[in-house]
């Protein structure tokens, strides 16, 4: 079985094969409390979770960003498509007699210790020619011995030593000469819980912030893709019709009306006063996070007296 060729059949650009070793750096950060809550659910030792595994397979799916005037991150569309493709690939592997299972591991540590990718100041990992525009799915697998692990290519020093573009672009000051500080990153607080005003002030797109990626030299050759998908039209999301969008990005993003929250903020940023009737209705939504975003939008659109 040629795993790399098989992965490409399912829409992945690359399939990297690494040893099923523990993740000591992740384990230390976990014990030190240095991780955002969303990063505390990962597997630090695949062999404990899957004793039969001798490899971790990382499946890479690149994506193209939307143009600057389209208020949507392309990451979750790639990640959700990759998730379903990985499930289909996993089923194929199992049908052919291979032992494999999904394994949520620290992807950055996996890539870097395997010599794949360049660590950047903004906390992301660039992989040429995809830059930082990709999502990764990971599997634990029992591969026939001897396993052909991914060979580490020669690495160049990152541009970060002389480049300060992401530092200047970050609206919340989460990147400096010392690197990336997740506690100050607005993106870390856009996952469904009630957003602080400073987070909404920093938001430039729905479903994340890509400002540091937009200016990164490693992404300079990646051309943007088309227009805003109809499923993400602001009036549609504000009116509660989020099923088509969730089908594209994953139902786990439904938490606390996340899409409605983000649509409110984007309506404010784009000056969409035509959407005020829909936003006013959300100002009395039973979900606190949605109410906060709606009232933020009403305030920014100059209609605080109508709340």
Could you give the topology of this structure?
Layout (H helix, E strand, L loop, with lengths): L2 H7 L4 E6 L4 H9 L13 H4 L5 E8 L12 H21 L3 E4 L4 H7 L4 E2 L5 E2 L7 E9 L22 H5 L5 E2 L2 E2 L16 H6 L8 H4 L19 H5 L4 H7 L8 H12 L6 H7 L5 H13 L7
Helix pairs in contact: 11-13, 12-13
Task: Give a written overview of the molecule.
- With 307 residues, this protein is α+β, with helices and mostly antiparallel strands.
- It has 13 helices and 8 strands.
- It has helices spanning 3-9, 24-32, 46-49, 75-95, 107-113, 165-169, 197-202, 211-214, 234-238, 243-249, 258-269, 276-282, 288-300; strands at 14-19, 55-62, 99-102, 118-119, 125-126, 134-142, 175-176, 179-180.
- The chain has a 4-stranded antiparallel sheet with strand order 1-2-6-3, sandwiched between helices. A two-stranded antiparallel ribbon has the order 4-5. Strands 7-8 form a two-stranded antiparallel sheet.
- Helix 11 packs parallel to helix 13 and helix 12 (276-282) runs antiparallel to helix 13 (288-300).
- The longest helix has 21 residues, at 75-95.
- The protein is globular.
Q: Structural class per helix/strand content?
A: alpha+beta
Side-by-side strand order of the widest sheet: 1-2-6-3
Residue runs with pLDDT of under 50 for 5 or more positions: none
> Percent of residues in helical segments?
25-40%
Number of helices: 13
Q: Let me know the number of strands.
A: 8
Query: What is the succession of H and E elements?
Result: HEHHEHEHEEEHEEHHHHHHH
């Amino acid at each position: 079985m040629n795993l790399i060729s098989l992965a490409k059949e399912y829409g992945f650009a690359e399939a990297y094969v690494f040893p099923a070793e523990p993740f000591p750096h992740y384990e230390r950060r976990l014990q030190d409390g240095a991780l955002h809550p969303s990063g505390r659910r990962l597997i630090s030792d695949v062999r404990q979770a899957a004793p039969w595994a001798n490899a971790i397979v990382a499946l890479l799916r690149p994506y193209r960003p939307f143009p600057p005037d389209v208020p949507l991150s392309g990451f979750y569309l790639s990640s959700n498509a990759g998730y379903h493709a990985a499930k289909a690939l996993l089923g194929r592997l199992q049908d052919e007699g291979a032992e494999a299972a999904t394994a949520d591991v620290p992807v950055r540590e996996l890539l870097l210790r395997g010599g794949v990718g360049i660590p950047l100041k903004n906390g992301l990992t660039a992989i040429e020619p995809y830059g930082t525009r990709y999502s990764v799915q990971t599997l634990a697998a029992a591969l026939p011995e001897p396993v052909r692990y991914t060979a580490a290519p020669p690495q160049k020093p990152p541009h970060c030593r002389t480049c300060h573009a992401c530092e200047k672009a970050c609206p919340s000051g989460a990147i400096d000469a010392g690197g990336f500080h997740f506690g100050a990153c607005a993106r870390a607080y856009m996952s469904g819980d009630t957003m602080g005003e400073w987070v909404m002030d920093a938001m430039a797109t729905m479903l994340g912030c890509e400002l540091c990626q937009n200016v990164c030299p490693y992404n300079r050759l990646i051309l943007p893709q088309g227009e805003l998908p109809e499923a993400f039209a602001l009036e549609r999301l504000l009116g509660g019709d989020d099923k088509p969008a969730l089908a594209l990005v994953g139902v786990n993003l439904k938490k606390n009306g996340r899409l409605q929250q983000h649509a409110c903020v984007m309506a404010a940023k784009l000056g969409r006063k035509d959407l005020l009737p829909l936003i006013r209705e959300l100002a009395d939504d039973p979900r606190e996070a949605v109410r906060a975003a709606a009232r933020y939008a009403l305030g920014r659109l100059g209609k605080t007296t109508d709340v």
